[in-house]
Amino acid sequence: MTPRATPAALGYRMPAEWALHARCWMAWPCRASMWGERLGAARTAYAEVARAIARFEPVTMIARPDDAEAARQALGADVPLLALPLDDSWARDIGPTFLTHPTRGLAGVAWRFNAWGGKYVDYAEDAQLARRLLAQLDLPCFEAPFVLEGGAIHVDGEGTALVTEQCLLNPNRNPGMRRAEIEILLRAWLGVDTIIWLGQGLVDDETDGHVDNLACFVRPGVVMALGEHDPQDANFAALTDNHARLRAATDARGRSLEVIRVNQPAPRVIDGRRLALSYINFYRANGGVVAPCFDDPRDEEARATLAAAFPDLTIASVLAFDILHGGGGIHCITQQQPV
User: Fold this and answer.
1) In 73, 100, 203, 230, which residue has its Cα 20 to 30 A from 187's Cα atom?
2) Are 102 and 11 in contact (CB under 8 A)?
3) C-alpha span between 115 and 127 (Å, rounded)
4) Positions marked active-site
5) Phi and psi of 329, rounded to 5°?
6) Residue pLDDT, tens place only, 42-92
7) How far apart are CA 211 and CA 214, in angstroms?
């Protein structure tokens, strides 16, 4: 079913990621042209993330029909599979963004998907995944009239959204669309009132600055944001500017934001490209946080920051290099379905 009115007009909104989850969705790595010889390592890493999340909540892995048996063997009995066509494996961006309604229950948004501004030419199956999954779940599907990815938005569940100029104002997404127009659409499709704009994302980030590498709400009024102390680092200026914007912002309830800083790991360059390494790119599950680590001296500092920010949650660290080779992190490969 595809409702004609926008979600907000019907009373739907995107809940915060700490709202209770019914399930986590993931998608099995399959784009051989991108992963190359690292495909096997990526699948092992995805399986490790899935099993880590399964300690806290149900997880279902979507896989190409031809890959289903191999995925089942890698994942084990705790992670069921759903066979659907795929081009890639970034569930945050190609899956639906789930919405809730106080009486009507659950629905989802199928954003228009253009492979991160045309980074790939074969994405027809991924562009249909959100619709197909919502149909499988027998949930209403709101088909958005504009390009967006799930990793480009983050909300506090109380009317505030975080986004970046680099991504949402990029002409490779919605050419000709201005900030004011995008804000109108975000309010109508996420059920938010206030949009907080960060600026630039990480160097060599294939997503053109997805916010889930930069900042996220820990709870209403509190944001965790990636930082860098070294002025010589290529990300220093962007991360410093983003912190300044957050400290100057107020949320939909009129609160100034408390900003928790977590410093980025040391640069890693693979095949001439700096990996977009970020401790912010974690998955918040029911009762736990599945967080990336990078065999870096700052790993322990980041883990301690997460533990202090989430004192009631278990922090489960997963080495994320083999995921980052594909262009994203743990948050990028997961999508929560709220209760």
Assistant:
1) 203
2) yes
3) 8
4) 332
5) -125, -160
6) 999 999 999 999 999 999 999 999 999 999 999 999 999 999 999 999 999
7) 5
CB-CB neighbours of 67 under 10 Å: 19
Tokens at residue 108, please? 């989802």
The Cα-based distances of 335 to 60, 191, 277, 278, 331 in angstroms read 10, 19, 19, 18, 8
Looking up tokens 């980041």, which residue turns up?
302
Q: Where are the alpha helices (DSSP H) in the chain?
A: 32-35, 39-54, 68-75, 91-94, 115-118, 126-137, 165-168, 179-190, 236-248, 299-309, 321-324
Tell me the HSE value of 310 on the side-chain side, using a 13 A CA sphere: 24
For the record, the structure tokens of 162 come out as 């975080």
| Spatial separation of the C-alpha atoms in residues 247 and 97, rounded to whole Å | 28
Q: Where do the domains of the chain lie?
A: 8-338
Kindly compute the dihedral angle of the four CA atoms of residues 65, 138, 284, 101, in this order, to the nearest 10 degrees. 160
Task: Name the β-bridge partners of 217.
Answer: 223
Amino acid identity, residue 6?
T
CB 62 within 8 A of CB 333: no
pLDDT band at 2 (very low <50, low <70, confident <90, very high): low
Cβ-proximal residues to 15 (8 Å cutoff; 6+ apart), any chain: 98, 99, 100, 155, 157, 338
Q: What six digits make up the tokens of 112?
A: 């228009």
Which residues share a beta bridge with 273? 270
pLDDT tens, position by position, 216-244: 999 999 999 999 999 999 999 999 999 99
And the tokens for 113? 């998907």
Residue type, 224: M
CATH tag for 8-338 (out of 3.75.10.10, 3.40.50.410, 2.60.120.10, 3.30.40.10):
3.75.10.10
**Residue 282 φ/ψ, nearest 5 degrees:** -115, 170
Distances (CA, A) of 65 to 28, 124, 176, 213: 11, 16, 39, 31
Q: Bridge partners of 258?
A: 222
**Residue 219, both tokens:** 């709870």
